[in-house]
Amino acid sequence: MSFWAAITRRAVQPPGLADSIRAGDADRTADLLERAGDEAKRPLAGHLRTFAAQGGLGRGWWDGPPHDPQAPALRAAAAACFDTAAEVADWLTRPSLWLFEGHQDDARRIARLLRDRPARWRAELVRRLAEEHVWRDEADGGRAHRLSAWFPAARLAEEDGIEPPGDATFVLGWLYAVADRGGDVADERLTRHLAGSLLRGRGLAARLRGAGDPVAAWAAAVARRAGDGVLERGALLEGCAGAFYDGETRPFTDLYAALRPNPREIPVGDLVRLVPTAPGPVVQLAVTELRRADAAGLLADELFAEATETLMFRPEKKHVRAALTWAEAGTRGRPGRTGAALRAVTAAFGSVHRDIAERAAAAASRLAARADEDGHAAVRAAADALPADLRDRLAPVFRLDAPPVPVPVALPAPPVEGADPVPAVESPEELAELVVTARDPLTVERLLAGLVTLVHRDREAVRAVVEPVLRADWPALFDAEPAALGIGGMDEDPRLLTVRAVLAAVAPETARRFREGVRSYPPHEWDPVPDTLVVTRLREVVRALETAHVPVLLATPTVESGHIDPMTLVERMERLEAAGAEPLDADFQQALLRLPRTIPPAAAVRAGTLTSAAGWELAAWLRRGGLADPVSGHRVVRLPLYEGSATVVTRVFPVVRPREEDLPDLVRRMCVVEPADAVNLASQRMDWWPLLMPSHREVITAWILPRLPPLVGSRRADLAPLHRLACGQGPVGGVTAAVLAHGLGCEDDGARGVAVDALLVHAARGDLDGGDLGGFLSVLAAADMVRLGRVVTALGDALAAGAHAQVWAAAARMLAELLPEGRERPRTGMTGLLGIAATAASLTGARSPIPRLAAVARRAGDGAFVREARRLQELIAVSEETP
User: Fold this and answer.
1) Sign of torsion, CA 586 587 589 590?
2) Mean pLDDT of the chain
3) Per-residue pLDDT averaged across 462-479, rounded?
4) Among 64, 776, 830, 870, which is disulfide-ready with 826 (CB 3.0 to 4.6 Å)?
5) Whether 287 contacts 321, CB under 8 Å
6) How many CB atoms neighbour CB 854 within 10 A?
7) What distance in Å separates the CA atoms of residue 62 and residue 758, rounded to the nearest whole number?
8) pLDDT number for residue 533
9) Helix (H) or strand (E) holding 867
């Protein structure tokens, strides 16, 4: 029987209630329920529960406005009829009952219906409506569900004088409500409380996502409340400044702008101290405000000097440009500032950006006539940081000495590959510590090896020490069946599989029931094989720990690079044979992949004494010298973004083949990378990958390459494996160059920095062709997969660190392929690339002609692009044979 039929056929009192709910008349429903007794409410509550169990109104979070006409009436019915605050809160936050309008009327109805409930009950409902889990970020940018929960909670807090929730979720709801209704959504007490909570809160910017932008409307409404006297302007401005100190941006930047402080209200001292380290949007606001205060004569000379000088050290070019402009403008009518302005300008002389250095030199020239001797001395002291031609321009003005002979920055020595030994775990106490601390793959390897060895030796000793630690961290695991069904990823995530291994060590029967209950799937054919190897081996270890029949793992690295000492591997195989145990299959194959590139003859000879089939296979592997380097290559293709898409993208696909045919299955699969495998699926286990084949880094790099395009535009890209691979062993080629090209173009500063560090390692080792790198950078830039400006910044960092030859080769190749033809406009960032190339050419003495450069240099005009082209052309011209 349907819900509507049930409540119509049953004699639900008072009369007309069922019709009111079905008609969506929420006010009449509330009126009738307010007068109804428990004998009417109780059966309706039962019908509502049945209705919910049958799917309710059939709407989900993916359904947008308008809301179902019956939703307001059903919300009122639930508030009146359900006994517990938990059930009412659950009902009011159901996606099918979210409201897209009428939130204040809904809140008034609900508060009226709950007026007779105990104060403690209403306070619990307020708390539950404000809890984190109800604030799901779905549907229309989060507006509907936030407001559907916030307005009833706020109304109850107002009417009962309840201490309002001060946590970020409730404060965020207030922000949405104020933006939606224009500010008048709460009484003065609640408004002051929420404003104070917001000013003290941190991390809201990361949660202000979704469709639309409520922040500007919220800020304008709060500023109006400040104008009405409900909120204190001074406290709001002080709160914004405090948030800026803590690295916050929105919504505080919007609130500050909406408050429009007059020049005397501007906290100039606070803003000056923010300039060196604050986020970019805060610095932009600070500069605007400081210049307003300066124009009103309210900025002291010492604060002007501090602000302009520290701005010169900001990484953002726009802030440095603003500082150069302000340094000059701030001296007009104030000659006493000229020396300070000159000192500030000199801080930009050493900029890696040619245009910034040019602006700084030009500003210094214009300020020279008004500057005192201290200012001139500051320029002379800093002039050597300028490019030679810019220094020459300043020489007559500031009486500079002859330029020093440049000493190029030397590349740092290549890092020593991780040769430190990986210590074995010797005691249960060490195991207990690792259970808590093991996160990175190498530490997990130590933990697993220690578990296998010590459990085989004495499970009870391990249980006595380790089980209490595991119970404290993971108590739910010991209720095996619910845990197996309730915790996702328990058979796929390396971290969770490691926890299961610990459980198998201390409670094997529980672990067995857990394994039988967990949803386990074979590896998907589209999963990257490195992930398959990691997960398959971890699953093997879990099962081995249940029985404790294996005395040792073969594949545990003996040094931090991930390699296994061949003699140690033979000794481990001897221990297996002595125990009558067969090696774990994936563990054995992983061990083969971790052997060094050179096998000592003594290890091969000793392996010849092994007696098991696996021992014979190991002996043969050692005699042949391990795995021969696979053949690697790449293809550049253009293809639809997805099947049927009109968007065409450029991708670099790796191709890897093994040199040998008779390889174990997982070893062979690791050495086969096809374009068909190049699905843009991000892996959560890439931190394991460099340890899988430490002697064949190009193969692992090939597996990483297809995963990079989605990471290039991400602000949370993790490219740490690139540096580890650069420090590894084995030949590198075009695949490595392609991976570095993606990394150098990443939006994420940290990821781009990792790529620069990896490039420096390759440059120090001399194993990477800079021209190949430039070729891939050209492909990516031409396809708009990377921004040229980011690449130029990264190449500038590498150049400053000493990678002169590699940067010159990369920049020359990029210019050859990207310079515009005829009167075509240059790409954004091309001027910076010319500057980097010129600096690299001067450091390397390069004299190689670049196609089309001479034609660009002959263009009319004196713009920065043409000037840089002429400068580079002069540097690389070969006597009279200028092309």
Assistant:
1) positive
2) 81
3) 85
4) 830
5) no
6) 15
7) 43
8) 94
9) helix 864-876
CA dihedral 416, 417, 418, 421 (to 10 degrees): -80
Name all contacts of 332-335 with Cβ < 8 Å and 24+ positions apart.
334/301, 335/370
β-pairing, 648-657 vs 631-640, is antiparallel
Worst-scoring range by mean pLDDT, 140-144, 155-159, 477-481? 140-144
Q: To which H or E segment does residue 652 belong?
A: strand 648-657
Assess contact for 137 and 209: CB atoms under 8 A.
Answer: yes
Asked if residue 641 lies in contact with residue 648, where contact means CB atoms within 8 angstroms, the answer is: yes
For the beta carbon of residue 168, count every other beta carbon within 10 angstroms: 18
Within 594-646, residue ranges assigned H as helices are 601-607, 613-623
Phi/psi for 196 (5° steps) reads -65, -40
Q: Are 81 and 33 in contact (CB under 8 A)?
A: yes
How many Å from the N-terminal Cα to the C-terminal Cα in the chain? 88
**Contact at 8 Å (CB) between 502 and 451?**
yes
Contact 134, 93 (CB under 8 A): yes
The region that residue 211 occupies, defined by phi over 0 for left and psi between -120 and 50 for alpha, beta otherwise, is beta
DSSP string, 426-443: -SHHHHHHHHHH--SHHH
> What pLDDT, in 10s, does the model give residues 385-394?
777 777 778 7
218-250 per-position pLDDT tens digit:
677 777 767 666 677 777 777 777 777 777 777
Q: Does the reported pTM lie above 0.85?
A: no
Which residue from 484, 586, 577, 504 is spatially nearest to 544, judged by alpha carbons?
Answer: 504
What is the C-alpha separation between 274 and 294, in angstroms, rounded?
17
Neighbours of 650 (CB within 10 A): 15
Q: Is 649 helix (H, G, I), strand (E, B) or coil?
A: strand
Q: What is the mean pLDDT of residues 489-498?
A: 82
Residues 27-83: tens digit of each pLDDT: 787 777 777 776 667 777 777 776 665 555 555 444 455 566 777 888 888 777 887
Q: How many other CB atoms are found less than 10 A from the CB of residue 205?
A: 18
User: By mean pLDDT, which of 52-66, 616-630, 786-800 is the weakest?
Assistant: 52-66
**Size of the chain, expressed as the number of residues it contains:** 883
Closest CA to 592 of 672, 693, 698: 693
Alpha-carbon distance values, 193 to 94, 260, 568, 875 (Å): 28, 23, 66, 66
Confidence label for 157 from pLDDT (cuts 50, 70 and 90): confident
Q: Phi first, then psi: give them for residue 408, nearest 5 degrees.
A: -60, 145
Report the percent of the chain where pLDDT is more than 90.
30
**DSSP secondary structure code for residue 524 in this structure:** P
Report how far residue 78's alpha carbon sits from residue 152's, in angstroms, rounded to the nearest whole number. 13
Lowest mean pLDDT among 276-285, 427-436, 481-490, 639-648: 481-490
* Burial degree of 373 (CB within 10 A; 0-12, 13-18, 19+): exposed
Instruction: Name beta bridge partners: 639.
Output: 649
> Alpha helix locations (H) across 651-748?
665-670, 697-704, 709-712, 720-726, 734-744
Q: How is residue 883 written in tokens?
A: 């092309």
Is 765 within 8 Å of 795 (Cβ atoms)? no
Q: How far is CA 291 from CA 237, 271, 459, in A?
A: 18, 11, 71
- Residue of 711, 644, 668 whose CA lies nearest to 532: 668
User: φ and ψ at 399, to 5 degrees?
Assistant: 55, 55
Tokens of 318: 């726009």
Look up residue 75 and give its two tokens: 């919300």
Q: Report the distance separating Cα 143 and Cα 209, nearest Å.
A: 11
| Amino acid residing at 487 | I
- Asked if pLDDT for residue 663 goes beyond 90, the answer is yes
- The confidence score (pLDDT) of residue 698 equals 95
Question: Tokens in use for 836?
Answer: 């980097």
| ∠ CA 280-778-833, rounded to 5° | 55
* 668, 616 contact by CB (below 8 A): no
